[in-house]
Design brief:
The chain is an all-alpha fold. Helix content is about 85%, strand content about 0%.
Amino acid sequence: MKVALGTVESWGRRRLLLVGCAGLAIIYAAVGAGYVMGVQGWPLLLLVVTAIATYATTLAPVTWVALSEIFPGEAHGASMAIATTALWAACFLLTYTFPLLTARARTGVTFWIYGAICAAGFIMGWPAPSSRHRV
């Protein structure tokens, strides 16, 4: 956790957001292609582990740092409770819908959908101002 938070401070929130979204979009596209082409074993395992590491070092810490910084002091506790509940609800929906999507659209297409969501996050995060070295 210390390494991730240190990375947020040294790289900046915007850069980590963009690197995380772009990295995951590319990795998910590759995972989807692997499933569609019938690749099995080590190549897919390495891509999945790389996706987990990318998320853990970019989007995960940025999410928690951003949530802790955006709410004013007088409403910080209640706001964080609501935001954390919404985040966990979104995590639940992602986990719950994965088997449903893979059953209907196949695993490869499911990862392409997730990659498209990450690409959309990159596009929406591009115009965000950088917070690096700001007080």
